[in-house]
Fold these 2 entries.
Entry 1:
Amino acid sequence: MRQHKLALCKEHYLKWIPEQTERFIKKYEMFTHEEKILVAVSGGKDSLSLWDILIKLGYQADGLYLGLGIDGEIDYSNESHRLAEKFANENNLKLHVVDIEKEYGQPIPVIAERTHRGYGKPCAVCGLAKRHEMNRIARDLGYDVLATGHNLDDEAAVLFGNTLNWINEYLLRQGPVLPASSGGLARKVKPLCRFYEREMTAYAIARGIDYIYDECPFAEGSQSIFYKETLNQLETVRPGAKLIFYLNFLEARKSGNLFIEKNIEMQHLHPCPKCRQPTSTPDLCSFCRMIEKTKTEAE
Amino acid sequence: MTVKLILRDKEYEVRAGMALVDALKKNNIVPESVIATLNGEMITDDIVLRDGDVIKLIAVISGG
């Protein structure tokens, strides 16, 4: 893990990930051991790993699988459902299953086609349906909090997209915790939001978690994957870039400075004793200090 | 003196003696986007490839 300047063996890695997760849960005040958690489980590496970690940490966590009716010639939904059920059965956990077609008459791709939403791709409809159903089940079954397996790459890609387009409203809402609203929105948390996608894949493999390896057939060519690939290229050259991008954003948002224009005139400026140009640094301005240093070095 | 890299349904042949990270970059595979395994065990990308190695690469990116 170059971003942490840390290398761990398998045994210690499998301890480190849950320990860090617990730290993030506490730091962002996500939930307590007394609360009932509903984990949104897709059959993928992140959500199954999250469920695994929460159980290991002693939390009361049940799963929710949403059957979206996506086939894509790889039987995608059925296979992901099978893997979610397998994980639940092997670990003796409770998994709620909601099948969109049984519940609403049509699977996601058909709803997308009939509603003409999403420019030929059902991703927007899928996202909307997932958010709606996850909230409904969490609320109806009395869960205190809804946990999703979003990792840092997911969050950084969303942040990157919203920054490229300067969507202030979304930027101000993004974070590890979305509080519950009095209008009936459940509290949503992302306990894995500070782990790289690569770290979560390594955790799932090291733990022997059987997850769906195939990508959603509709995800190919998606914008979020393009953003992830772009950020990974940056990360390869500048290790830690994704982490800094996300954490500094959270810090700016928390401090309330995200969209407050700094009034440069308000900063304390004084004339540099040497060149008389305005500077905010104490004593000499940066330029004069630099020139002074070159003289000292030359002596 | 060849090594095989396998990523999904694609195969790449590279020279033995080079570091995995260089082999990935040479084939335009972003190291951050994969996890490499050799004989079922995860390996780090600074490992030097040996003749006959078959490296299975697991794509880490998901989402839509």
Note: The beta strands of chain B are 2-7, 10-15, 34-38, 41-43, 54-59.
Entry 2:
Amino acid sequence: MIYEVSNLAIIIFLFIVGLVLGLSFYFARKTKSASKYYAAGGNIHWAVNGIAFAGDYLSAASFLGICGMIAYSGYDGFLYSIGYLAGWVVALFLVAEPLKKLGKYTFTDALDSRFNSKHIKLAASISTLIVSLFYLIPQMVGAGDLIVPLLGLPHWIGVLLVGSIVILIVATAGMTSTTYVQFIKGALLVVFSTILTFYILNHGLSLTPSENYHQFLRTEAVITGGTISRVVDPSYQIIKTISTDNQEFAQLEKDGSLYWFHVTKQGDKAVLDEMLHMTTLADGSILYNGEPKSERKFYQVGHLSKIVVDGQEVTETGPLGPFKFLKTIENSEVVRFSKKSFPDGEAKVTVWYQNVTKGKDVMKPGLLYKLSKAAGATGWDRLNFISLMLALFLGTSALPHILIRYYTVPSQRAARKSTIVGISAIGFFYILTLYMGLGAMANGVLDVESSNMSAPLLAKTFGIGLFSIISAIAFATVLGTVSGLIVASSGAIAHDFIDKYLEVEMTDKGKVKAGKIAAVCVGLFAILLGILFKGMNVSFLVGLAFAVAASANLPAILFLLFWEKTTAKGIAWSIVVGIVTSIGIILFSPTMWDKYGLVPSDAPIPLDNPGIISIPLSVLTLVVVSLMTQKENLTKTNK
Amino acid sequence: MLHEPAAKIETDKAASKKAKLGVKMFLFYTLVYAGFVFIGLTRPEWMGLEAIGELNVAIVYGFGLIVLAIIMGFIYNYLCTKMEDEMNKH
């Protein structure tokens, strides 16, 4: 997709990035000790920390990823909102206060507080690093996606830009600046998402999303001997037809240009519907709807084909209340754009065909995660659903960059209160995601190349000013989250591994310096990963980070807090098993098979979300190893 | 070389009672959450049924889980603060 770049958008973007950097440099002058660098000195006010929790948590995955997933897959995207929020219950009721009491700077400190074990230090620092890297990938991908329409620059420059700015932020100021950046960003995100939702409801729903929305062509063809032989419109010539996964596509030629149409057979006739199509030629060049990208023949899509209000079909609704909006979509019909890829000689063709979907199917689970037998759900599909919901529920309280925020407040009471402020802000935002996602689905703003841009592009239909602010906030969202993740990662390397595990003698200043060097290295690696994973939905990627965190870290935290027989080796081995099994399953999953350029259905493990296997395995390992090493526990206690 | 907390934490006599309350509230919420997953797995068609104010079960249950977490958070904080004030008086 090619976007018009606005000067206003650039000015607002530069202003917000400048604000973030200015704040960082201001706090940099105050960051002289390791305590200030890793835990903001432990004296952040609970209300500020609570909103900063929201800032940390409402990452690119929440704003860009969930809204995009809802825009493409309806309610199934909202499952992420439900799961992400529910995870905070585990954090509040079980983890927040005890963890505050146990730790100093990092998640490893807390796990190791009872044992002083080298095994735990090593396993937990590696786990922190891996989970943070998994979480970093989607943030960087989201940053790249944002830069394309905002500044008109290529994806990789966006990734490079966010990586460089964050390295600068973290390498200068650490947790204090990260906290205040998250506070401002979290507050702005909730406020402007509310404003965007107000615009969506006030605008209502219409069969014509905008004046310049592309009118998709529809023509008919004659079927002879089971295949289409002739197009009724004589200006089109049939070149070929291709069938894949129960869908048939026809390539037609008109005025020297080639187009792909979706074929729906109806008796001895066929209806041909225009599609979006992208052809990657043998020489690597790409054609968009048969033309080079510069010809701007690739359109933003997403519309309703039927609107029903109170039993009456209408062409537009006018302003709607929040519940009426949801009910109207449920009663109407949505045109989604489903993706299929197939080879065409030496070229690779990707098409997005119109998929008319009943509103009632959009408003309940099932479009992405097949659940009913009627929809062809298999046992693996159901297992995928349970696995996702389990990982989302258990993952939040195992994310190192969230856990370290408990060390920035002065007391356990403050830790609890800040969690509740965080839950309230985050919960309210997640309710808004349903409106923003459905709004994008119905308002002709979807860029089929990246689902991540649905919410910002929706804002663009309500004015370039709103789009600029929302995009700049989204970029700041990425900056803030990546800052937090890099602080957590640098803590794992410099504090947990170099200082505590290797026991390298360092002064307090030396520790801060080691943390900053580690931050630069992690930042550079994150830039590379962000470029490699371009095009994937960021919320899906974060879902994987949750699964790894829930498998590797949560059993260790909960058993440490609630089971006296837990041993150091039990914790260390459960972390190792959690990491290995969750990442192993992900690497052999259908999604990664697709990423490798292989056929997804050939993947050795037909499961995209590993939690259902890796979490119980990690728990089992902890229990078995702990019971086997009780003698060590007793020896330690007697000493 | 154990890892002391970043900020000095005072002794909390209410810690054990708060932990028990936390576990109870966690189990209650987990049951409600599991109910949502269970319906999705075993009776997915129920998700489309009309529930309250013309909204379907999926929407009411989904919004309900989010709102319930917030309400339970406030209740938990109220009860914990009360326990702390009473038990840590002296």
Note: Helices of chain B lie at 15-42, 57-87.
